[in-house]
Structure formats: C-alpha cells, structure tokens
Input
Amino acid sequence: MHFLRLLLILSWAAFGGGHLFSTLFYLLIYNDPIIIAMKKILFIALFMCLLIYSGCAMQKDVSAVDNRLTEMELRDAEARKNREQMEAQITTYRKFREKMDQELRRQSASLHALIEELREEIRILNGKIEELEYSLNQEKKATAGIFKKSETTSSQLTEATSKNKERIAQIEHYLNLESSGKTAKVPEIVTPGIQAKVQKELTEDEIYKLGKEAFDQGDSAAAKMRFQELIERYPKSEDADNAQFWIGEIYYREKRYKKAILEYDKVIEKYPKGNKVPAALLKQGLAFENIGDKPNSRIILEDLIKRYPTSNEAKIARERLK
Output
C-alpha cells in the first residue's frame, strides 16, 4: 500500500502534477517505512535529475553562445567587407590623386616653358624696338642734316643768282646797252643730285651687280647703299631677298650683331619663299651666339634644322648644337 502511494506521487510529479525536485525532496523527509528503506534509491534519482537538468541548462547556454558567435562572425564578415570597400576606395583615390599630381606637374612645366619662351620673345622684341629707335634717330639726324644742307645750298644759289643779275646789269650799263624789256637768262646751275637724276637710271641687275662688287671689295658703305637702292626702287625684284641678306652680312662683318639680327629677320619675314631664308636663319642663330644669347641661338638653329633638314645650313647648325 505504501509502495503504491509512492508510485502515484512520482507519477504525479513527473507528468504534470508538480515539480520533480520538490517531490523528491518531500519523499526524502517523509517518515514512511518504505520510503526510508528506499532513501538510497531516492538519492540516486535526485542526483540523476540534477544531472539531466544541468545538462539541459548547459545545452541551452551552448546554443546561446553559438548563436552569439554566429552573430559576431556575421558582424565581423560585414566589417571586413566594409573595410575592404574602404581600402578599395582609398586605393582608387590615391591613384586618382597621383594621376592629378602628374597632370598638374606636366601643366606646370609647360606653363613654365611657355613663360620663359614669352620672356625671350619680349626681350627680343625690346631689342628690336631699341634698334628701330636708334635707326629712326639716326635717320632723323641724317634727314635733318640733308634738309639743312639743302636749305644752305638753296640760299647760296639764290644769293649767287642775285649777284649774277647785278653783274649783268652793271655790264649792260657799262656797255650802254638798251634794255629791250627782256631779262637775260641766268645760266641754270645743276647740283650733283639733279645731275644724278638726269643721268640714265640703272636697271635692277646693274644696281645689284654694283652692290655685290662693292661688297666683295670690302666697300661696305657703297654696297649697303646699292642694296638699299635696289630694295626701295625694285621691291619685287628677284634679287631683293639677296640684297637684304647682304645688308645683314655687312653688319655681321662689322660685328654689329644686333643690327645684323634685325636685317636677317627681314629676309625671313619679307621673303619667306626666297633662297636666302636658310642662310639668314643660320647667321641669325650665330649672331645670337656671338652676343651671348645661347637660348635664342639654339631655338633658331633647331628651327632651321626642322624647316630645312637637308640643307647645308642645317648640317652646320647640327655641328654647332653638339
């Protein structure tokens, strides 16, 4: 009877009637003969229940920890993905920045070269302006001297004419000549300039030949006068570019290199299709070298080689640039 009651209590505790631990504890303190005899069994049952419950608790903790580890791994994977994206963006930005830096350096170098080239051109233009101002001043002085000389000659002619008229009147009075109402003609005095105009005008070939002969003989003044005369009177002559070149050669021979540079430049600008352009470029580059302007000398010689690569002047320019 007591055993049956014990089974009922355990069944009730196990299948919904109560808590198993509290039931076992109750049985342990219950003063029943059969229960007292089965205390060892009850202790074992209680110990087994504790193990089962602790095992369930550990399994739950392990599941919770596993879930948290899974969540942390997902977060770590996402963080690694974000970090990789950030690193890729940083690499792309660095490449873009390096490319921009290279482009900026290239543009800066180009601008610097352009500024230097403009400075050289400005310096050359300033030199040309100074030469032109000097030439204009010299021409003004020469023109003023010619006008003054012309005025002096004119006044002398007027004075001589008046004196001749007075002498004629005195002679007529001395010879008791009757005046016929006509004035005696005074012999016309021909000046050297007028006499030159009366003479036959020279042809362009004759002028060029005279100028070249004077140049070969070392008479720079006469040669320059003839060459300038050819250019002024026959600007479209086939020898006009040659005449302009020889004027530059006259100044180069006199070591007036700046003036020679200007005259050579006239050959290049006025007669771009002439046969003297390569020679003018070569001598212009050498003239710049003689005045110590090596950058401009190199630029002009390189331009000569580029424009006329097969010319003899280009060969000389290559030797000078070595």
The CA atoms of residues 62 and 68 lie 10 Å apart.
